[in-house]
């Protein structure tokens, strides 16, 4: 079977698309597919289009569509133009089916479901292929009854369909393995297989980058392209994502939806970086920016084997992105995280404190909840209530030492060296060390046993707040 191929030349604009079905959340696998399409288009100055495949009216919901758009927006995958509704294009799909009828590339089939099942039962009994061969394929239109019918593609029954795939290589499927698929149902509505081809053609899609579970669909869809005389897009069928155990990613492996990763507090840049590395590579590069990913991404870098999701690698990359992120951008993302997870917005004091403290908060942080916990000394309201472990550091002796430390801090120059000298002096006067005195001091200032340096905290919250918290801790 011969098919026209689209061979892009340098000035041919690249057009990719992401085409999710709005029947639930944005799956992590779908997010990676969207990312690959986005990177390929953006790196070549092309267009990245979005199509909502909402032809399954029973399962498609506005809420799912909104969740998909929200997930893509959070990931930073911007699309060109307005999202296309596949359902709204049904008249155009039907128009193409009728063009194929008129040209002899399709036919009306009046076989009933009972007749089709009877054919298959007999085929099974005789050990033949159960692919339905309609008796109406070559019937004289004059013999057509006045009855409901479907429109079937008149597919070739011999020869081979060759899928030239940029990831899987050349894949050959015998045409005797493909049936005359239904393109229009008896109620006149188009099937998914027809709609996809018509939409991709009309949207000018040059590269179809999608999961390899669609590989067999490509063979059937190519027959529609051939019947209509349309250019076939470049195929790139990418392996699915597996869990750490090598089995298809599922709920038992953990979170599946993009919104779950957002709620867990992974930064969008870290997610983009990690998803790009799931099944694609550029040398030994692990950490990279969006600009680098767009410049480097190519279909030749996609492997044929399923990628395995690894939370430790995701956390590691997220940590690197936290460290590399500019403070202003990080503060914006933190505010968005708090809003998305239903947490209180920052007030002016907290906002200013975080702006000053982000350089000392970022190291070692891998998620926004970790950042929020590390910033507890800024976010907490007076009186700061220590957690159970911190409260143990505030015994009677420690409270007494803090009481004697207070006047030293009142008169100290509010600089790190002076503060450290004042605390060290009081510690030595009580026969202890600066390190041991830091524990009750940390409990008083942060209410935690783990926090940034006590001197960093003092400098961030200032003299007045420091002294007030010490007074609160002394009871």
From TrEMBL:
Subunit structure: Monomer.
Glutamyl/glutaminyl-tRNA synthetase class Ib catalytic domain: residues covered: 14-315
Subcellular compartments: Cytoplasm
Membrane-crossing segments per the record: none
Function: Catalyzes the attachment of glutamate to tRNA(Glu) in a two-step reaction: glutamate is first activated by ATP to form Glu-AMP and then transferred to the acceptor end of tRNA(Glu).
GO molecular function terms listed in the Swiss-Prot or TrEMBL record: ATP binding; glutamate-tRNA ligase activity; tRNA binding; zinc ion binding
UniProt motif 'HIGH' region: location: 20-30
E.C. designation(s): 6.1.1.17
Reactions that this protein is recorded to catalyse: tRNA(Glu) + L-glutamate + ATP = L-glutamyl-tRNA(Glu) + AMP + diphosphate
Protein's UniProt name: Glutamate--tRNA ligase
Similarity section: Belongs to the class-I aminoacyl-tRNA synthetase family. Glutamate--tRNA ligase type 1 subfamily.
Any Pfam family the entry gives: tRNA-synt_1c
Positions of short motif 'KMSKS' region: 248-252
Binding site for ATP: 251
InterPro entries the UniProt entry points to: aa-tRNA-synth_I_cd-bd (IPR045462), aa-tRNA-synth_I_codon-bd_sub2 (IPR020751), aa-tRNA-synth_I_CS (IPR001412), aa_tRNA-synth_I_cd-bd_sf (IPR008925), Glu-tRNA-ligase_bac/mito (IPR004527), Glu/Gln-tRNA-synth (IPR000924), Glu/Gln-tRNA-synth_Ib_cat-dom (IPR020058), GluQ/Sye (IPR049940)
Keywords recorded for this protein, A-Z: Aminoacyl-tRNA synthetase, ATP-binding, Cytoplasm, Ligase, Nucleotide-binding, Protein biosynthesis
Main location: cytoplasm
One Gene Ontology CC term in the entry: cytosol
Domain called Aminoacyl-tRNA synthetase class I anticodon-binding: residue spans: 333-473
Broad enzyme group: ligase
């Amino acid at each position: 079977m011969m098919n026209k191929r689209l061979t892009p030349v340098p000035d041919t604009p690249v057009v990719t698309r992401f085409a999710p079905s709005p029947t639930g959340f944005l799956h992590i696998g779908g997010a990676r597919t969207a990312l690959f399409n986005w990177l390929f288009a953006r790196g070549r100055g092309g267009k990245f289009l979005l199509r909502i495949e909402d032809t399954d009216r029973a399962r498609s919901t506005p809420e799912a569509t909104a969740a998909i758009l929200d997930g893509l927006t959070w990931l930073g995958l911007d699309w060109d133009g307005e999202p296309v509704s596949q359902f709204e294009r049904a008249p155009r799909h039907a128009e193409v089916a009728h063009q194929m009828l008129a040209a002899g590339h399709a036919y009306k089939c009046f076989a009933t479901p009972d007749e089709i099942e009877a054919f298959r039962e007999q085929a099974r009994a005789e050990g033949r292929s159960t692919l339905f061969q309609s008796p109406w394929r070559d019937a004289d239109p004059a013999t057509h009854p006045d009855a409901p019918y479907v429109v079937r593609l008149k597919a070739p029954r011999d020869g081979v369909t060759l899928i030239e795939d940029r990831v899987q290589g050349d894949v050959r499927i015998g045409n005797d393995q493909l049936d005359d698929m239904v393109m229009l149902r008896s109620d006149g509505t188009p099937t998914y297989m027809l709609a996809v081809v018509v939409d991709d053609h009309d949207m000018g899609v040059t590269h179809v980058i999608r999961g390899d579970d669609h590989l067999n669909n490509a063979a059937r869809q190519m027959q529609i392209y051939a019947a209509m005389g349309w250019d076939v897009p470049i195929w790139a069928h990418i392996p699915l994502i597996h869990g750490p155990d090598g089995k298809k990613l599922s709920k038992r492996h953990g979170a599946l939806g993009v919104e779950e990763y957002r709620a867990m507090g992974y930064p969008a840049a870290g997610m983009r970086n990690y998803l790009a590395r799931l099944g694609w590579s550029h040398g030994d590069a692990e950490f990279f920016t969006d600009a680098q990913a767009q410049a480097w991404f190519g279909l030749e870098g996609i492997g044929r084997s399923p990628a395995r999701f690894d939370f430790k690698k995701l956390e590691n990359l997220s940590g690197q992105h936290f460290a590399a992120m500019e403070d202003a951008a990080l503060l914006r993302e933190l505010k968005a995280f708090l809003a998305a997870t239903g947490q209180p917005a920052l007030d002016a004091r907290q906002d200013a404190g975080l702006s000053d403290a982000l350089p000392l908060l970022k190291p070692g942080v891998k998620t926004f909840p970790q950042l929020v916990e590390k910033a507890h000394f800024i976010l907490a309201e007076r009186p700061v209530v220590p957690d159970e472990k911190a409260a143990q550091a505030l015994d009677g002796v420690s409270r007494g030492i803090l009481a004697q430390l207070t006047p030293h801090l009142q008169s100290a120059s509010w600089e790190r060296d002076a503060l450290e000298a004042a605390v060290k002096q009081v510690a030595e006067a009580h026969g202890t060390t600066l390190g041991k005195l830091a524990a009750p001091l940390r409990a008083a200032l942060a209410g935690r046993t783990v926090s940034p340096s006590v001197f960093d905290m003092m400098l961030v919250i200032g003299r007045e707040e420091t002294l007030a918290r010490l007074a609160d801790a002394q009871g």
